[in-house]
Amino acid sequence: MSIVRNNIKLSRMDKQLTQEELAEKVGVTRQTIGLLEKEKYNPTIALGLKLCKVLNKSLDQLFWLEEDENEK
């Protein structure tokens, strides 16, 4: 099984955005951004693409799959 990993927090910080500001730009709550950054929530394709646009990153720069070590 694979786990979705992301660089949302680093990308957000590079843009000097708060979680609240990023949330407003992509149309979600600050709590959703927090869960995404902690990798506790996987975004829809639409939300992932909105995040990419706001953070000026490609999908593969912002998200990637990693093998779950517990499944091996």
Produce a short descriptive summary.
Helix content is 53%, strand content 14%. The chain has five helices and two strands.
Description:
The chain has 72 residues and is of the alpha+beta class. 53% of the residues lie in helices and 14% in strands. The protein has five helices and two strands. It has a two-stranded antiparallel sheet. The radius of gyration is 12 Å and the shape is globular.
Keywords summarizing the entry:
72 residues; alpha+beta; two-stranded antiparallel sheet; 5 helices
Shape: globular
Average residue pLDDT: 95
Helix and strand content put the structural class at alpha+beta
**Radius of gyration from the alpha-carbon trace, in angstroms:** 12 Å
What distance separates the N and C termini?
9 Å
Q: Percent of residues in beta strands?
A: 5-15%
Question: How many β-strand runs?
Answer: 2
Number of separate helices: 5
Q: Helix-strand pattern, N to C?
A: EHHHHHE
Strand order of the largest sheet: 1-2
Low-pLDDT residue spans: none
Helical content class: 40-55%
Question: Biggest sheet, open or closed, and with what strands and sense?
Answer: 2 strands, antiparallel
Topology, pairings included?
Blueprint lengths: L1 E5 L1 H7 L4 H8 L3 H8 L7 H11 L3 H4 E5 L5
Antiparallel strand pairs: 1-2
